[in-house]
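stage 2 :: seqdesign
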C-alpha cells in the first residue's frame, strides 16, 4: 500500500467527493479514481459507495479511514518532533472547543501565542462536548475544551474551572433586574436551548427532570450563537456560562442572571487531552498558556 494511494484515499474520505479531493490535491479526478480503484483491488473490498451526490465510506472504508487518519497524525507528530530537535517552533495544533469559548477568551489567547510562536498554525473546530470527547478519542484533536463532560478513563483533565450557568435575557425583559431566578419561573417562559449533544443541555434536562418541571422549549439548535441571539430579541430566555458572553454583557446587549439550582451553579468547563497520547512541543506550550489565561480570567471574575 503506497503512501500516495493512502493520501488520496484519506482526502476522498474526508471530503466525501472524488472531485473535491482532486481539487484539494491539485490532480485530475481520474488520477484519484485510479488510486482508489487500485486500493480496492489490493484490499479486495469496496471502500466507497458511489452516488450522484458523491461517495460514502463503506464499513471497510470506515475501518481504513480511522487507521489511516492515525498514520497521518503520527507523521505530523514526527515532523513536529524533528522541528523541536532543530530548535524550531513550527507546528500545528488541533484545538476543539465549545462554541461559547470562541466568543470569549480564545481569540486573545491565540493572538498572544502567535506573538510568541509566529510559525505555529492552528486548526480550531467548534463542536458539542460529546463531539469534542469523540475527537480526542479518535485522535482528531490535540486539546479539547468541554463543558460538564462525563468522566472517561482515556481522557485526562488538565484543568477544570467553575462555570455556573446563568440565564440570559434582554435588558427589556421582565426578569432583567432580578438578582436570581428559580427554575420554576424560568420554565414558564419561552426558552431557546442547544440540542442534546451539548453538555449545557444535558445539565438543564437533568435538573428539570429532578424537579419534575415541564419547560417551554420553543427553539432547539446546534448553534449556541443562535440561542444568544434569540435571548437578545427579548422574547426568549437562553442559558450560558457568563464567561462565554462577556462581550454581550459588557456592551449591554444581555443580562446574565444566576439560577437558583445547585447543579447548574456547580457546572464546570475543562481542558482535556488524551491520556496516552503525547503532545507536540507547540501543543504543550499552547496548553500552558491556555490554562494560565483561563485561570487568571476566573480569578478576575470572582
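stage 2 :: out
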Amino acid at each position: 500500500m503506497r503512501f500516495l494511494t493512502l493520501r488520496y484515499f484519506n482526502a476522498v474520505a474526508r471530503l466525501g467527493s472524488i472531485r473535491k479531493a482532486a481539487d484539494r490535491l491539485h490532480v485530475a479526478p481520474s488520477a484519484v479514481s485510479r488510486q482508489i480503484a487500485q486500493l480496492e483491488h489490493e484490499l479486495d473490498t469496496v471502500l466507497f459507495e458511489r452516488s450522484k451526490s458523491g461517495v460514502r465510506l463503506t464499513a471497510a472504508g470506515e475501518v481504513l479511514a480511522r487507521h489511516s487518519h492515525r498514520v497521518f497524525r503520527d507523521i505530523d507528530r514526527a515532523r513536529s518532533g524533528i522541528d523541536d530537535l532543530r530548535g524550531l517552533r513550527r507546528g500545528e495544533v488541533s484545538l476543539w472547543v465549545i462554541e461559547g469559548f470562541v466568543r470569549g477568551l480564545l481569540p486573545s489567547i491565540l493572538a498572544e501565542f502567535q506573538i510568541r510562536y509566529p510559525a505555529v498554525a492552528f486548526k480550531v473546530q467548534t463542536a458539542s462536548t460529546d463531539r469534542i470527547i469523540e475527537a480526542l478519542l479518535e485522535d482528531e484533536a490535540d486539546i479539547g475544551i468541554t463543558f460538564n463532560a462525563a468522566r472517561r478513563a482515556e481522557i485526562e483533565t488538565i484543568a477544570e474551572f467553575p462555570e455556573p450557568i446563568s440565564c440570559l435575557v434582554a435588558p427589556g425583559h421582565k426578569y432583567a433586574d432580578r438578582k436570581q431566578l428559580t427554575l420554576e419561573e424560568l420554565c414558564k417562559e419561552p426558552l431557546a436551548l442547544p440540542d442534546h449533544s451539548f453538555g449545557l443541555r444535558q445539565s438543564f434536562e437533568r435538573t428539570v427532570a429532578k424537579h419534575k418541571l415541564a419547560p417551554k422549549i420553543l427553539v432547539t439548535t446546534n448553534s449556541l450563537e443562535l440561542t444568544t441571539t434569540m435571548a437578545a430579541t427579548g422574547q426568549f430566555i437562553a442559558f450560558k456560562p457568563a464567561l462565554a458572553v462577556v462581550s454581550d454583557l459588557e456592551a449591554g446587549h444581555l443580562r446574565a442572571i444566576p439560577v437558583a439550582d445547585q447543579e447548574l451553579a456547580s457546572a464546570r468547563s475543562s481542558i482535556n487531552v488524551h491520556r496516552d497520547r503525547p503532545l507536540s512541543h507547540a501543543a504543550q506550550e499552547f496548553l500552558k498558556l491556555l490554562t494560565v489565561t483561563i485561570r487568571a480570567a476566573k480569578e478576575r471574575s470572582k
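stage 3 :: structure notes
- The domain at 89-161+269-301 is CATH 3.40.190.10 (D-Maltodextrin-Binding Protein; domain 2).
- The radius of gyration is 23 Å.
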